[in-house]
Amino acid sequence: MAKAAHGSFAEAGADLELVGIQKRFPGFTAIEHLDLTIPAGSFFALLGPSGCGKTTTLRLVAGLEDPTEGKILLGGTDVTALKPHKRPVNTVFQSYALFPHMTILENVAFGLRRRAIGDPVGKAHEALQLVELDHVADRKPAQLSGGQQQRVALARAVVNRPALLLLDEPLGALDLKLRRQMQFELKQIQQEVGLTFLHVTHDQEEAMTMADTVAVMNKGRIEQMGAPEELYELPKTVFVANFLGQSNLFTVDVDGGTDQVIHTVSPSGKISLPRRRSERDSGTITVGVRPEKLRLHQSAPAFDAAVNVIGPGRITDVSFIGVSTQYAVEVPGAGTVQVFAQNVEAGPAAKLGDEVWLSWFIEHTFGLADDHLETGAITADFSTQAIATQAGLAE
To answer: In percent, how much of the chain has pLDDT > 70?
Structure first.
């Protein structure tokens, strides 16, 4: 990243606070009751499937929708009643929305000219330097690649020094390799510029790669919020465990324990977990472990107090995907268990039909607050914008 513009762009963004936000459409509540604080200068991701309320939340912050109840504070100032153009907020959309008849420089300077800000050309050059595109300032958008156009859209938003920058699925139109490159660049720019970024996405990898804090939304409310590694390693609900990566989940009965460890029994064997990693500690509970934490064994492993073992089971599927091999193992009493084994050797270590045992460290087990996921909850394919359009309420 270019460093020349760093001094000019060092102003910190403002903190965003949503207080008791509710958004109802006729016959449908998009957001139940949302309280959320995003610290100034942070990169915050709102992650969730279609229809969870994340885009509605972004539109409320931008001023494109009005909340049914609640307040929106930016830098401590109530902006709930302000029109979009009066808010110190800029949005970068998936569609770049650049003016095709203007040069790149004119596109970036456009907002500054409209607001009669001094030296619009100089500031536009600074912003283009930040995204390393000042050398194409005289070209038209059609002459740039998709990734370059996205960076121009980012420069056009950043040049206005918004207190808050909203990113609405900004990388969705890019191919995989370019998307990963842009994830890195966006994070670098956010750290350099120091603005507050609110990024809305359904892409788990994208959220975890870029954000300091991730909030997982489901059905208009936040299920869990925290650092990416915290959400991945220690999900609290079945929804988070399944939406953020893959999880093997087991229904077990608590069967005693110590101050440090909970012991459980299930049809597939005994499973223990740290008490501090479980949301519940009595009765029938759901526990889980990530597929990459599991190890395959061709024979029953020796007893180890620090390790859980289930099996024997039989391998029903083997998928070689380069860096790892993914196994599906049918274990009596546990159903199909997924195992991701890194390919440190040449090719898969076990084959279809093999009898195997599975082990993992007790430390990697987590206990959830709930027991099952409603059918279709993760794949529900409806959006609040579509519902609003049908109701004749969309902007």
So the answer is: 90
